[in-house]
Amino acid sequence: MLAQTTMTSKGQTTIPKEIRDRLGLQPQDKLNFSLLSDGTVIMRAKKGSIKSVYGMLHQADRLVISIEEMQRP
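Structure tokens predicted for Transcriptional regulator, AbrB family (73 residues):
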């Protein structure tokens, strides 16, 4: 796939929608850029870490139980 974009005077650019969709990119996603010796730029969507989902399922009124308690019949 080939896509073209224009860089603004502030160094900003928009990733074309087709590429955003194919990579599953969302606002606030992090992107890593690598510059190869021949001038090729590789852009990769940074994979989320467990830290990025920490607390996502937290419910203040939910009872905290151990794994052993969960495994009891």
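The CA atoms of residues 55 and 62 lie 13 Å apart.
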